[in-house]
Amino acid sequence: MKKIIVLITTLLIVTPLAMLLYKSQVLNLSLLPQMVDDVWNFHLTARPKGDHTSFSFPIPKPGPGIKISDERIRSKNFEVFIDSNSDSALATWSSKEPIKQRVTYSARIDLKPLLYKNIPKDYTETYPKGLNRYLKMPILLPEDVAAINHLEKAILEGNEDKTSVVRKIYYYVEEEIQRNTSIKTIHETLNTGKGSPLIKAKLFNIMARRQKVPSRVVVMVRMPDLKSSAQAKLRFTFANEVFLNNKWIPIDTNRGYFGERPDNFMVIHRNYEEVEKIISKKRVSYAIQAERARINRFNKTEFKKEVIKSDSIFSRLSLYRLPLPLQTMFTTIMLIPIGTLVLSIARNLIGIPTFGIFTPILLTLFFKETSFGFGFLFFSIVVLIGIGERYVLDKFYLLAVPRLSIILTMVIMLMIGYSLFSTDIAFISQKHLAFFPIVIVTTNIERLSIMLTEEGLVNTLKTLFGTLVIAILGYLLYSIHALEMFMFTNPELLFTIIGLLILIGKYKGYRLSEFLRFRDLVRQKKKKSEIISNDIP
Amino acid sequence: MIFRELKELGILGINNRVGRYILRHNKRSNYPLVDNKVLTAQRAEAWGIAMPENYMIVENYGSLKNLHLKIQDYDSFVIKPANGSQGNGIIVIKEIIKEEKNGVTRVLCRRSNDKLMEIEEVKHHISGILSGLYSLAGQSDTAIIQAKIDKHPIFDNYSYGGIPDIRVIVFEGYPVMSMVRLPTKSSDGRANLHQGAIGAGINLSDGCTNNAVIKNQVVEFHPDTGHKLVGLQLPFWRESLELAAQCYDMVELGYLGVDIVLTPDKGPILLELNARPGLGIQIANLAGLVPRLEKIRPQASKNLLARERVDFSMENF
Lengths: 537, 317
What we know:
The structure holds two protein chains of two kinds.
Chain A: H1 3-25, E1 39-48, E2 54-59, E3 66-73, E4 79-83, E5 89-94, E6 103-111, E7 114-115, H2 142-155, H3 162-176, E8 178-179, H4 186-192, E9 194-195, H5 197-210, E10 215-222, E11 236-244, E12 247-252, E13 257-258, E14 260-261, E15 265-269, H6 272-275, E16 284-293, H7 300-310, H8 313-317, H9 324-333, H10 335-350, H11 359-369, H12 372-393, H13 400-421, H14 425-430, H15 436-478, H16 481-489, H17 493-506, H18 512-517, H19 519-535
Parallel strand pairs in A: 8-9
Antiparallel strand pairs in A: 1-6, 1-16, 2-5, 3-6, 4-5, 7-14, 10-11, 10-15, 11-12, 12-13
Helix pairs in contact in A: 1-17, 3-5, 9-16, 10-11, 10-15, 10-17, 11-12, 11-15, 12-13, 12-15, 13-15
Chain B: H1 4-9, H2 14-25, H3 31-35, H4 37-47, E1 54-58, H5 67-71, E2 77-81, E3 91-101, E4 104-111, E5 116-118, H6 119-130, E6 143-146, E7 165-171, E8 174-182, E9 198-202, E10 209-214, E11 217-218, H7 237-251, E12 255-263, E13 267-274, H8 281-285, H9 290-296, H10 306-316
Helix pairs in contact in B: 7-10
């Protein structure tokens, strides 16, 4: 290789890497935006029953394990007042006339699991005044008090610290009280050993407070799992929190969590006693929905601030300065050069045959924009159309360009058909670019049927298979989200890719496929030279 | 390295062929001379190199209209795309049949594989050529209707259907390797190695076949005729090599594939040229191209005549 090429290639490859080093070491920029967890789009609608000019409803409040952003409350025709002075937030809507409309609240909510391991022993005797309401005893029937007394004697020893006491009460309520949604009073529960989730939480609450541990029943919403539909209405459920070592510790006797709350539970109010009447079905009808928002897995907004703050040349050249839709487009586009790298390796170093030069990359983009299964199916149909068309239209003696145009039109019809009969409409409207790659691929499809007649089934299948293998390889690479973000964050790496492509372009050695192609030559040659050497003596 | 044996045998790989030989020795501006068979024919005529006679060049759809009137004067002909490759798009018509029915003349063409074609089908095929179905890059093309060549009797026992051709790789004007491609039943009578034709390597020194392969596998006998493939002595060998060497002077491409056919009457004539000749010839000869090409390199600057270059090649390979 000429020295100048070596020099250019080295510069192309090394400079961007040096820039990465400079960015991370000197400017202290991170090379990737921070990951953010999946967030929830939370949506609540409520309407009071009866004629009320004002009504309240609990709304989520930031706290341990819960972050809230983009809060929106519809306030047309209403006055809205949010009381968030206590540990929970309560929104109050009021109007001059009785409220007949639904009111809405929506927010983006980020939930994190809570976990308190090894809770230390707690010997606290006195609590601040503010906690007194969490120690207040509800009025109970005398026989219920007696029953609880009896229970306490059985499970507690009398000289333990509060953490151990709470743990014992937890074990009792969690294990000994069976879940039964039809049993709704403490009295019945004490008699039958069964209770609804709310009653189990209430019983735990009473028993903790009797041991002078501040305790409360929290109102929670269980977020839908992946399988349930986004439209599913969510219901309230209940758990507890106890105050140990100056911290509110989550406890759930219904699902068996001690000092732990998984991130699929969102607390909407931290003191059931305050909202018991407000959320009663007799007074209000409400619907709660939540769906996962997976769009922003990397916190681009924060990173943009970081980049601009660094005030270096990179802050001016950063793609993060682009408007958001362009950013989304470029995250995908930045992957194309990586695809070309895969393609060059596959074709020039390995020797995999493909249809057209860039067909595999277009296919990869199509797979990425739709999904692999759908993309593969759609591509297979396009291939079948391409082959079928030739057999049918051959009889008409059509010229090639109109004929290709017919295939293209048929593919468009296929897309329309799919959109009309698929329930998955969002998929098309969101990704308006998704189908363009396949449209371009279509123009290559007729070559396939020509190849089929001229080079036979085996060669055609080999080429088809090669195309798919490269497309799938690219797809696997493209599905590494961090790679996408890394290229988007550090576009100078494109120079490195050019450098690597020059290296591949200068490669004059054998392709892997040639090892197979000339295998027989090598074998025959050896055989011949053996015969000759055997003949000599 | 798994490539060690290939390297020892001096096998030329695709990357090496492109990077070290084609890109460096073939001027891009001269490619049309070999890619476009119409241009090749014009050039060959000026240089006095014999090629099959072109009856007709079809450049637009309009001239297809009266095709049947024009072709019925010939006994046979071949249709090929001017910019085709690997024999794609070529149809050989060996007989033209005229039928009179109720005062209407119907023209039918019998292909070399005995299939009958309506004149409409022939026109359709030509319009496919014109729209670029078979051309190298898919751009619109010209169709050539040319004289059908007869098989030289030496190949009677070695060919099934079509006409065998001789491929010579010429480097800087020196023939370096050669093979004869013999059509088989499975290649549908075509001299195309990809489709299963036999490739038989030829000693440049004496014009004798030295080995034969079908699709990279060594074979000893012709699968259709059963004749032994090694040891066939080709006639007009020196003339063939000189023809090949002259082609270098004609198109000035350093790395060139020359396809020659032997006619019963005129001896070797040029069929077509190729600026990107395939590598299968090495398997047919059980020999690598690299050592031969490198042996030519110091010779290249000597400016010898085609005749003298052939002397060198026959002595050395």
